[in-house]
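Z., the sequence and structure:
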Amino acid sequence: MKMLSAILMLTLAATGCMTKTEARLKAQNAFLAGQNEALQRQAQAAAEAAGVTIVGAVRNSQVPWVAGLTLAQAIATADYTGAEAPKQIVITRQGDTATLDAKVLLNGTDIPLEKGDVIELR
């Protein structure tokens, strides 16, 4: 609150006479602009840090994104801890879902992943 009062005092000194309402409105606009900028920076940092999420019996549910990341690599990085091998793998990408038989990976077929993919091991 002291910071806001100081901003109002400096605003009045720099701009000459202005009503309390005008000064408060100017201070609020400056505050909101700063908040908006901070939120944009946070959203950008989150987008850059986004990786792949693995849901199921794993030690690491967040796998960092690297170019060329595949399904097998992501599961290995997540460190699967299930007592049995998963029977199904569900991949969700931008709202679209695909269900695979887990034997596909054992047969040597690997699937490239994209940032933000969610992998569910069942």
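The mean pLDDT is 84. The helical segments are 2-15, 20-49, 71-78, 103-106.

Let me know what you think.
H.
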